[in-house]
Amino acid sequence: MSTQVKHYIDGEFVNGSGSKQINVTNPANNETIAFINCATQPEVERAIASAKEAFKSWKEVAVSERARVMLRYQHLLKEHHDELATILAQETGKTFEDAKGDVWRGIEVAEHACNIASLLMGETVENVARSIDTYSYTQPLGVCAGITPFNFPAMIPLWMFPLAIACGNTFVLKPSEQDPMTPQRLVELFEQAGAPKGVLQLVHGDKTAVDVLLSHPDIKAISFVGSVGVGQYIYKTGTDNLKRVQAFAGAKNHCVIMPDANKQQVINNLVGASVGAAGQRCMALSVAVFVGAAKEWIPELKEALSKVRPGLWDDKEAGYGPLISPAAKERVLKLIAEGKAEGAECLLDGSDCTVPGYESGNWVGPTMFDKVTTDMSIYKEEIFGPVLCCMEAESLEDAIELVNASPYGNGTSIFTASGATARKYQHEIEVGQVGINVPIPVPLPFFSFTGWKGSFYGDQHAYGKQAVRFYTETKTITSRWFESDIASGPNMTIALK
Question: What share of the chain is helix, strand, coil (3-state, %, to 5)?
Fold first, then answer.
């Protein structure tokens, strides 16, 4: 029997009155495990109104008390870590270990929000002019909103609402309709942590809910993670409605392998970084660029990749799980077929992959192409599947030129034993997040997630100091007090009254 996933509006969990129903399916067999009634426009507007009313009092709550809410919340998240990972694994298909990583990376941001007092500190200068002082305060914006994707249903919501709320804002979360059970549990735990009514709202649905958030005058800022097309729509529509927007979109991440690198480390890291999470992550390494003699390692990489097999979430031997939906699988298979037709050499083909007993699942096996060129679909498009494209470059300069020509700039890595090579690469590469002998360089929360170019639309990035700036406004005060007004003498006490 499937479960109805609830909205959380004005401090209450409700089924919603929308007539449109969306089923949540188990990607391993496509059986329905839950469903949602999409939020109607009035329901989304009621959530926004409740958040706006809650903001009036929440912004006045002492920053130390807001931090204590986050302290209680991160404790509850840790206490329920495995429970959250189990829910997440069952609705996304991720392996349990991968699901635990999803939850933990979100917990790290909630931990970071506990330090909000020091992150909100302003600045001051005494005597900017005679007897005049200037100082600044960091103040919240109002009602903020987050629109999150299917691939990290714990981590990405936790990128957003803990920091936004700790800054003194209230928040409306619209998670992916494909895996809404994990966000619901995150909200339940937030309520349990003592968050006041109305501070956090949860609405499920489709484009109707999104468009209300993008156009409503009481929403001050929008955070989004998702695909390129939707990211562009969110950014354009949100900014047209005069809102702050941070929109994290697509990626095509390159790993440059120098011939002086540690071969076994390269192979081990490439296998996990390319097909882990079924390739459904914006920081996946989907392109391996072999420089010079490093191309001789391609057969060994193929051999290592061929040993990885997908499986069920609780299969400890599985390398990764199924894709999220039949549509996602169909898209990946289409790109694999196009890669073959366009002349790439398919060294490893996972198109016909099945898992015994779960043949109806969205399975794609590890897939590897060689002789990939920049005009091929498998290079130009973000595949979002367990597919690795291999390319070759004659020199480091050629590799840098190749990577910099990409319209995306989310993440990149280089494997080398040379500090000078690494220094040149990190300095010249036009990508926001660079790993040196690190395959997926996602920064910890005290830094920010800094995608560039077509991977990000906006000014301030997620979590870290940049997120605090995104969710706040600076108020600068210039004050002057006259010494002649200081009360003195025997009547000073009376004067001060």
Answer: 40, 25, 35
Measured CA to CA, the distance from residue 181 to residue 389 in angstroms comes to: 34
Q: Which domains occur in the chain, in start order?
A: 3-250+451-479 (3.40.605.10), 253-407+411-436 (3.40.309.10)
- Active-site annotation, residues: 282
The chain-wide mean pLDDT, for the chain, equals: 96
Residue 84: what pLDDT?
98
Query: What's residue 98's pLDDT?
Result: 97
Q: 169 φ, ψ to 5°?
A: -85, 170
Packing angle of the helix pair 81-92, 96-113 (nearest 10 deg) = 130
- Is residue 58 within 8 A of residue 290, CB to CB? The reply is no
Q: Burial level of 41, CB count in 10 A (0-12/13-18/19+)? A: middle
Residue 249 and residue 455 in contact, taking contact as beta carbons nearer than 8 Å: yes
pLDDT exceeds cutoff 60 at 495: no
- pLDDT level of residue 463 (50, 70, 90 thresholds): very high
Q: Pick the closest to residue 182 from 206, 158, 162, 161 (CA basis).
A: 158
Encoded tokens for 206: 């489709």
Compute the average pLDDT of residues 174-203: 98
pTM for the predicted model, two decimal places: 0.95
- Given the structure tokens 């198109």, which residue do they identify? 351
